[in-house]
Design brief:
Elements lengths: L2 H11 L5 H20 L4 H6 L4 H11 L4 H12 L7 H47 L11 H62 L5 H27 L1 H7 L1
């Protein structure tokens, strides 16, 4: 092991200390190595005089009043020591994939709600156009007077029904549009923000910060907000299509 490899390995084991403390320690050991080389020792022999690298890191951490076991666990978790895979990288990747799946699910729900709202608007517009534009042409010369009056009453009655249907569909469309704008969209934004905060808390927890309680609370908030979003979406659009077909 040469000098740079020794200093790099030592720095890895001292990641629990702040940057300035690590730089001071590495500078001190670099000077020790240079002095021993100047006294006639080879670079490898000068490094071997320090003994086992793990024991040396334990002594340094103990001198800084840091639990050596905490430093050892942190070194293994961050740098994949002792032949283990990089737990930090895999955990972050898993959480990123989970967040991506949640974003995709919410996006599909929101887009579906918007499409259903536009479909209702289109059907309402078509009904209004048909109610005004479709009229039966009946010749006065071929129909008796009483039959003509009966047909006229039937046309007026049908037009009245069409007006009522158009008004009803217009009211339902306004309710769905208001629910989408004032309920679904704000809830979707809050849910997305909660997922982002949850991902940040998961990363902080993996790094060793004591935020497990906040992470669990945020997870519960995201689940509750998502459930409420799906409930409101089902109330506005889940049964509306069945009811609209019966009008």
């Amino acid at each position: 092991m040469n000098r740079e490899e020794f200093l790099h390995s030592l720095e890895d084991r001292l990641q629990v200390l702040n940057k300035q403390e690590r730089e001071d320690i590495l500078s001190e050991y670099r000077q020790h190595i240079e002095l021993r080389i100047g006294s006639g020792l080879s670079e490898e022999a000068a490094i071997q005089d320090f003994g086992n690298l793990d024991d040396l890191a334990v002594e340094i951490l103990d001198a800084y009043n840091v639990d050596p076991e905490y430093g050892r666990k942190r070194h293994i978790r961050l740098f994949g020591g002792e032949g283990k895979k990089n737990h930090f990288s895999s955990t972050v990747k898993e959480e990123a994939d989970r967040g991506k799946r949640i974003f995709q699910t919410i996006g599909k729900k929101v887009s579906g709600a918007v499409k259903r709202c536009l479909t209702c608007l289109k059907q309402w517009a078509q009904t209004c156009c048909l109610g005004f534009g479709r009229k039966k042409k009946i010749s006065e010369e071929t129909l008796p007077a009483d039959l003509e009056q009966t047909e006229g009453k039937n046309r007026k009655r049908k037009q009245g029904y069409q007006w009522m249907r158009s008004i009803k569909r217009g009211i339902l469309w306004c309710i769905k549009a208001a629910g989408t704008v004032f309920l679904l969209l704000p809830m979707a934004v809050m849910d997305l923000a909660g997922v982002v905060c949850l991902g940040i808390l998961v990363v902080l927890t993996v790094l060793g910060y004591p935020v497990v309680g906040f992470m669990v609370g945020m997870f519960g908030g995201v689940v509750g907000c998502t459930a409420l979003f799906l409930l409101v979406q089902d109330i506005l659009f889940g049964h509306g299509e069945k009811g609209g077909n019966n009008i």
